[in-house]
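Notes from the pairing session

We agreed to fold both candidates in a single pass and log them together. This is the raw record for the first candidate, unedited. Please don't reformat it; downstream parsing expects exactly this layout.

Candidate A
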Amino acid sequence: MAYGFRGAVLSAAVALAYVGGTAAQDIKLPATITLTSYETGANAFNQAVAVGQMLKSKYGTDLRVLPAGNDVARLGPLRAGRAQASSMGVGVYYAQEGVLEFATKEWGPQGLQLMLSATTCSGQALAVAKDLGNTPIKDMKGKRMGWVVGSPAVNQSLLGLIAFGGLTKNDVKLVDYSSYGAMMKGLVNNEVDIVFASTISGQAKEAENSPRGIAWPPMPASDTAGWERVQKLAPYFYPHKSTCGAGYGKGETIEVAVYPYPIFMAYASQPTDLVYGLTKAMIVNYDSYKDAVVGVDGLEAKRQNQKWIVPYHPGAVRALKEAGVWTDEGQKNNDTLIARQKVLADAWAAYLKTNPADDKDAFRKGWMEARRTALTKAGQPVGFDE
């Protein structure tokens, strides 16, 4: 069965179970909202809990947070109608594009849209052992790089980041790990030299306190050729001046890579009023939760990156307009991205009608060719190059 852009549908019980917020804010929310997220203890999970505490306090709404270990598991409940939203990472982009783990007959491109995403003082960046010295990325040939088996999002990020220095996976020594946590332990244990991490993660802090230390090779925005190489492989990254994280000196600013994290999102098919109410509640009550956990301050309305690569849901756009932060440039980008999702949906439907091979590799190869052809014909960037 082809799913394409099929979104989750609110059950009648949830749709009718609205309780009112304050009349002045005109916020209406269901008695219960179910949201998927990363595992318990992850920053995305902690931020979701902080938002949930606000919703309970202000509106009496229970936010049920379901932890899941990967992007497919996070999106499954939304697609099946058992959850209304998710607090995700960059997997939202892979799902939109129908690539990597979503380049399968069971999935394909998904119509996902944003509510709010967090951008704060931290970076999502290439990390190296500090004992390497002040080595630029271009000079890391022959160094050991972590590689998480079964985690294409992590691995694609690594390939994109080392491309800043003109390197490919053939220029480094790949060291396989069964999990992300194991890879980060590998940095501490002198098994690898290069990893991908959030500058404010617990694993980065552990590495900072180890004998090897941790450092973040600069990726200045002025190196346009380097950033073109990054975004060819991992277009969700963009330059960022980061001021906080493990291994930073007092008052230090490092030019690194970043993408929004976490990303509160829903399927395009979710009711506009529901997404509007949830987004509006997060905006107008920002001061009540902004200091609850590290990074949640990044959900502030004025920090939203309206030029990113996944569109905002109409309900979120309405809330951002009312907050006075939505721009003409943001609207233009949003319209382009929604058109992109339609191109992908149409290409997926057409590809399935060709009765593609059941073999997973052959299916993926055929879909990626069809995807490239459709996007190129529509004048849209391919945006992902395997």
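Candidate B (folded immediately after A)
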Amino acid sequence: MAHPDLYLKKNEDKRLRKGHLWVFSNEVDTKRSPLDQFAAGDLVVIKDNSGKPLGSAYINPNTLVCARLISRKPSQKLGGNFFKDRISNALALRERLFDKPYYRLVFGESDGLPGLVIDRFGSVLSVQITTAGIEKQKEILVTTLIELLSPESIILKNDNSQRQLENLSQKTEVIYGTLPETLIIEENNALFQLNVIDGQKTGWFYDHRNSRVQVAKLAKEQRILDLFCYSGAWGIPAAMAGASDVTCVDSSESALTMAQSSAKLNSVQDRMHFVRSDVFDFLKQARENNAHYDIIILDPPALIKRKKDFKAGYEAYRRLNHLALQVLSKNGILVSASCSHHLTKSNLHELLRSSARHIDRHLVFFSSGSQGPDHPVHPSIPETEYLKTYFCSVASSL
């Protein structure tokens, strides 16, 4: 049976023709294809204003991004063969990139699976479904993952705000197998204990793995401050590489508990300190105490989640970097990152420039980083390129 048609307004097909996969609700010709005739998760054929098919998509008539293209073929079905083909392709790339099964296996649109993220923690898969289209195919997806990867357990990490926008339940559950009592992964030759059920997002952040390697290479005999440390993914490899002292700061007690456990796993607990605090408050107190650090890692959560939050979020990033620069040692290194898509690399560049000038410091960029290769960037979808990092050398004013 053919999919029903979803017609676009005149000239609203340009972005799709360039390779993007999203259709916004205000781009739909609702006179020819009223949105209320579709149910969330239905498959449709996207057609331009002249009636020419552009491909197959799943739809949610109640959301701003109301349709996501799954194929340029107008008859594509969302079934076992579809998931097997797309996940196999994603797996083949990761197995070429990594020699151990610790990586992001599926990264949404970049892997041809809009609304789906899968992180692989050895024999455990953490699955995040963010759209009604994928939710409707959940059983087929799980069956495919079992067939392809024979996991010990599969966790649905669905406690995120994107599901709320799609009117989906926000419940985390082990949908297959049994979760190991202790789950340990490996990244950059360090071991980390995970709490996937209660952890943020999928339970781990693989995206900074390459930048963390670079910090470790700079860490020997350095005093390091790791802000928004979460589970210690920056600080622990730095301590293993010979840092004299590593202070990890986070507001989450459970995250710090995991980080402490991981420090013991890697036998570096004697050189690490874990502080539960709001980062703004910690930096202000450090400034008042005249404390200084040789390397500061500033990796906050997304402070600009929506475009309309840009002004307040930009100011928060500016204040954080300004405060961090004030407690950085002479000739120190600031590693400043942002995972907010709406804060561009040029925005981060500018706020670092202005913050350094404001306190009369000589700041130069000697390196920059982005997301790891298991978070591939779709060349037509700028939203898939979200992570940016600057490595800054900071000295007294010239």
